[in-house]
Amino acid sequence: MNFKIKNINIRIVYKIYGSMPQHFSPSILKIDYQMKTCKLSFIVVALLSIALSTSAQTVEKKPEQQPTLKITGEDLLGIKSGADPKKALPSNAGKTRKKGRPVVFTIGDSTMKNGQDNGNNKQWGWGHFFKDYFDSTKVSVENHALGGRSSRTFISEGLWDKVLAAVQPGDYVLIQFGHNDSGPYNTGRARASLPGNADKDTTVIMETTGKQETIHSFGWYMRKYARDVKAKKATPILLSHIPRNMFTTKDSVAVIRNNKGFGAWTKEAAAMEKVLYLDMNKLVADKLDKMGKDSIQGLYFGDHTHTSRAGAILNARTAAEGIRDLKDCKLKKALKKNF
User: Fold this and answer.
1) Residues 174, 123: one domain?
2) Structural domains of the chain, count
3) Which of 52, 251, 265, 271 is the most exposed place for a label (fewest CB within 10 A)?
C-alpha cells in the first residue's frame, strides 16, 4: 500500500515540476518538496477515501424488493385445499411397496385428498380412509391425489409422471376427476379441459407464462391415464366423481346425479379403452337419497363439495363396496372380509 502511494506521489510531482530533481530519493522528496508533497498526499488520501466510500455503498446497496403477489378468491381456496404442488408433490410414489404385493394408487382432486391430508381444516378426502378396507398383507394403498387439480393439470404439472414412474405390473390405479375440469382455459386457475370425449384439442396462450399449451377433451385425458397404466401391465379403474350436496330442485330430496356430463364421459372413456369403470357418483348419491336431506348435511363441511370426516369415510366405504361388486375386478380379493 505504501509503495503504491509513493509511486502516485512521484508521478504527480513529476507532472507538476516537469522533471525529477537530480539524485532523487523519497527522503529528498520529503525535504525539497515537503509542502507540496503534503498537499498532494492529502489529495491522494481524500481521493482514496471517496473511492472506498463509494465501493462500500455499492456493496451495501440492497436489491429492490419485488412486489408480493396477492392471492385471493378461488386461488386462496385452492392453496388451503393443498393445491400448491410444491407442498404436496407425489415424489414418494411406490414407497409402501413390499416384495410380492401390488400397490393400489389413487389419483384425483381434493375430494380424494384434501389439504395436507390431516383434517386440519375439518375437510377430508375419501382416499385417506380407503386403505382401511384392504388387507395390508396383500396390497398397500397410496393416495396421490392433490387438491385443485383437474384431469388436465394433474398431467401438465408433472404429477402424473411421478406416479406413473412407480407403477409396476400387477398394480392398480384408481382415477377420479371432474370437479375441477370446468372454468377458464388460460386465465385464473386455468385448469379446464374441453368438454366431451372426442379426440379434439385447442391451443391457447397461458396468461401466467405467455407460453402455448394444447388442451384436450376430458375424455381424452381419462383415456390417456388408462392407456398409460395398461402400458405398464397394471390395471386402471376409472371412477365418476362424488356427488355434491345439491338437489334437483329447492324442495327436492333427490341428490343431483352427474350422469350426463363428466360422469358420462368417464364411462365412455372406460368403454373405449376397455377398462374397469366404477360409477361412484351414482353409488354415493343412492346412499344420500336414503339417508335424507337433513341427515346428509353433516357429511359436508365448508361448502357443497368437500366432505367432513364422516362424509369421507362413507365415500371410502362406498368405493370399497364398489370394488367388491365390480365384475372381473381382481382387486376385490385384497379387501378385508366383512368390513
Assistant:
1) yes
2) 2
3) 251
